[in-house]
Amino acid sequence: TTRPVPATTRIGGVLVQLVEIPGLLAGANDDRGGGRALLGVVRAADAIVFCHALDSPRTSLDVIRAEVAAAGIDRPALVAATKSDDAPADALEQLCTTEHLEVVPVSVLDDDSLASLRERMWALTGLVRVHLRRRDDTMADPIALKPPVTVADVAHTIHHEIGDRCSGGRVWGQSVRFDGQRVGRSHLLRDGDHLEVIHARAPAAP
Question: pTM, whole model, 2 decimals?
Answer without folding.
Answer: 0.82
